[in-house]
Every structure is written in C-alpha cells, then in structure tokens.
Amino acid sequence: MSEEELLVDRDEYLAHGVHIGTKGKNKDMEPYIFHVKKNQLAVLNLNQTDERIREAAEFLAGYDSEDILVVGRKDAAKRPLKAFADALGTKIIQGRFMPGTLTNPASDSFMEPEVILVTDPEEDAQAINEAKDAKIPVISLADSADSLDDISDVIPANNKAENSIGLVYYLLAEQIVEARGEDRDIDIDEFRTEPVIEEDEEEE
Q1: Alpha carbon distance 49, 18 (integer Å)
Q2: Domain 3-190: what homologous superfamily?
Q3: Rounded CA gap, 40 and 19, in Å?
Q4: pTM (2 d.p.)
C-alpha cells in the first residue's frame, strides 16, 4: 500500500506510536508483525493496521450505533472510548466489565448489542468470553503479544498508550461516518490528551 492510500500519513501513525508492539509475541499476531528489533521489541505492520481499520469500519457501519458496544478497561482507553461513543452514539463500558452484562438478563447491567469492539484482549477478556457465549461478533485492537481467541476481526495496533488507541478509534469513527454517508467533522483532539511524540524510525 502506497503512502497516498493510507488513511493518514505514515509519519502520523509513527508519531502516535501505533506501530510499537511489545517484547512478547503471540503466534496469532505473527502475520501482523513487520519485524522484531534487536532489543526484541516487535514492530507492527502499519499497512495491515490501516487495512484492518478500513475493514472494521465498513463492518461496523452496517450496524445501528445503538447496537454497537465499545469496551475498554484500561485507563489509557477512557478518553478514546468516550470520544468514539460521543461521536457515533454507541453504547460504552469503561473500566470494569460486570459479569453477566451480555449473558444474564437478570443483571442490572444486562444489554444486548449486536457487535462489540474491545481495546485489549487480555484486559477485556470477560467481555470477549461473554460475547462468545452470546454469539456476538468481536472486533478487537490487539498488540503483538495478544491472543486472538474468540475474536472475529483484529486491528493490529499498540493498545497500551492513549495516543495510539486514540488515533485508531478516531480513524474508525471517521471511516464509519464516511461509510454511512454522514457529513460531519470529528475532532482528533477529543480522542487523546497526550502530546504527540515525533518518531524518527521508519517502519519500512
């Protein structure tokens, strides 16, 4: 994929740290790893990330916003999730995912989304497990060490830092709005508070 075909400049992905993986590497994520540095830090393939954001957005655009549930337990996901939900009108669960939310109709937190979007397969495992039981498709951001068990579609990306999570959710929201033919602006500054750090290293 050429630079012109990416959703944002490659430098923008790099500056937000979207390509930065971990020193851990799961076999499920091997197809999305561009290379491993000498210090064993994995570098994710930004072409794959960009393509998967487009595919996920096209899939999500086919659902009514109120039927989409966005989940993120970690603190770094709080602002990006809220901005995504505010922009699109989706349901959102930040912080702890209460057991029974997708599987127990007697629970005060019970809801019946048609698709869920999670930020971290490890942190959000409860949501993924319940979605499996409820036969709800799951789209997840995933870093180099994450398992993709019970995940329908993956967006390979650094899911540890607010900047990276924020850019991915911003691009998803922007692409969903475009796919739906809606004419409104989405402000990336709503999705992250951290200053963007320039990255000299090129992914490829």
Answers
A1: 9
A2: Glucose-6-phosphate isomerase like protein; domain 1 (3.40.50.10490)
A3: 14
A4: 0.91
